[in-house]
Design goal:
Layout (H helix, E strand, L loop, with lengths): L17 E8 L4 E3 H8 L14 E3 L7 H15 L7 E7 L10 H5 L15 E2 L5 H13 L8 E10 L11 E10 L4 E12 L5 E2 L9 E2 L1 H29 L13 E4 L4 H18 L28 H10 L1 H7 L5 H6 L6 H12 L2 H4 L3 E8 L3 E9 L9 E5 L3
Parallel strand pairs: 1-14, 4-5, 4-6, 11-12
Antiparallel strand pairs: 1-7, 1-8, 2-3, 6-7, 8-13, 9-10, 12-13
Enzyme class: transferase
Protein name: Hydroxymethylglutaryl-CoA synthase
Keywords: Cholesterol biosynthesis, Cholesterol metabolism, Lipid biosynthesis, Lipid metabolism, Steroid biosynthesis, Steroid metabolism, Sterol biosynthesis, Sterol metabolism, Transferase
Length: 406
């Protein structure tokens, strides 16, 4: 259950601000990716092995972005026995629109009517798949600001991902995640540890107002994703190293310092490649890597590669996928449960990965662990940040619930 709020917001800086409770919801109907391979007339394994996908969730004509978000919010509030008057900020991250003016957030205010609470800040935030992370940061910043009035913030990330017939269609999906944000959280966003990269590109965008389908440049999108990952990881490492030096710890930050590493997941295979890429970053920046034994064994020939030359280098990709296979199994594989079985949810994608980790490990296993989070939105915007699980992650302190039709 969520912890109690302080009597007032007049105390000093709120402690341990982060995610207090989390709910996930996605539709019950899905397309089996093996069946989709047959229907599309592509080779067996193109979607299941090549993309790493098993199923793809989709909405019927009974659901839309508003209903997804209404459902996930109502369930979070009811399961945690929360009154709607304890919410002071509600922010939605989505790129799925029904109305070009009215926000999803204002639709969600229907749930607040009986409580009489209309004093709720926040609005929709949009930038492809990054909107949910921007909404989360806004909520955390609100709690840590002079505007905070002592109430919880509520963040909703929801989307319906659909593509025109073609190679991108099997990377669709749908769902929503709701997160209660406040102090004394179990999942604490580590203050000051965010590496962000923002740039302009048309890798994925929706210029046609009468079509729900995006325009996608697949190769450019992968390049943008991986280059943003490089930049964000570099910035994050510099910030945490500076923080460690102040604490008297003088060592470089590496993948070893993440207990789990989760990613925005357009499709599962890209996540596996991304984890391998972080190992490549570690290897290049390591002054004296041991290539005789250990994780860097046999990687001598890649010592002088430049990151910007390796986005589509098959030799580099193959070598580091092999070297990082055990790390992937330990730190990332569990996070892909929802992504594999439901597909890409856009803004909730990375938070579906977070829910997947929380659902498969006990509170005792997670207590005190650091979870790395990489969020990417086309266009493009990205951040790598970290969550620290409270040492007091006892059963019942955090509510991780959802409707999982797997």
């Amino acid at each position: 259950m969520p912890g109690s709020l302080p009597a007032s917001a007049e105390a000093s800086w709120p402690k341990d601000v982060g995610i207090v409770a989390l709910e996930i919801y996605f539709p019950s109907q899905y397309v089996d990716q093996e069946e989709l391979e047959k229907f599309d007339g592509v080779g067996a394994g193109k979607y299941t092995i090549g993309l790493g996908q098993s199923k793809m969730g989709f909405c019927s004509d009974r659901e839309d972005i508003n209903s997804l978000c209404l459902t996930v919010v109502q369930r979070l509030m009811e399961r945690n026995n929360l009154s709607y008057d304890c919410i002071g900020r509600l922010e939605v991250g989505t790129e799925t629109i029904i109305d070009k003016s009215k926000s999803v957030k204002t639709v969600l205010m229907q749930l607040f009517e009986d409580s009489g609470n209309t004093d709720v800040e926040g609005i929709d935030t949009t930038n492809a798949c990054y909107g949910g992370t921007a909404a989360l940061f806004n909520a955390v910043n609100w709690v840590e600001s002079s505007s905070w009035d002592g109430r919880y913030a509520l963040v909703v990330a929801g989307d319906i991902a659909v593509y025109a017939t073609g190679s991108a269609r099997p990377t669709g999906g749908a769902g929503a995640v709701a997160m209660l944000v406040g102090p004394n959280a179990t999942l604490v966003l580590e203050r000051g540890l965010r590496g962000t990269h923002m740039q302009h590109a048309y890798d994925f965008y929706k210029p046609d107002m009468v079509s729900e389908y995006p325009v996608v440049d697949g190769k450019l999108s992968i390049q943008c994703y991986l280059s943003a990952l490089d930049r964000c990881y570099s910035t994050y490492r510099k910030k945490i190293h500076a923080q460690w030096q102040k604490e008297g710890v003088d060592k470089p930050f590496t993948l070893d310092d993440f207990s789990f590493m989760i990613f925005h997941s357009p499709y599962c295979k890209l996540v596996q490649k991304s984890l391998a890429r972080l190992l490549l970053n570690d290897f290049i920046t390591e002054p004296n890597p041991n290539t005789e034994n250990g994780v860097y064994t046999g990687l001598d020939s890649f010592r002088d590669v430049k990151l910007e030359d390796t986005y589509f280098d098959r030799d580099v990709e193959k070598a580091f996928l092999k070297s990082s296979a055990e790390i992937f199994d330990q730190k990332t594989k569990a996070s892909l449960l929802v992504s594999r079985e439901n597909g890409n949810m856009y803004t909730p994608s990375v938070y579906g990965c977070l829910a997947s980790v929380l659902a498969q490990y006990s509170p005792q296993q997670l207590a005190g662990q650091r979870i790395g989070v990489f969020s990417y939105g086309s266009g493009f915007a990205a951040t790598l940040y970290s969550i620290k699980v409270s040492p007091d992650a006892t059963p019942g302190k955090m509510s991780i619930v959802g409707v999982l039709y797997l």
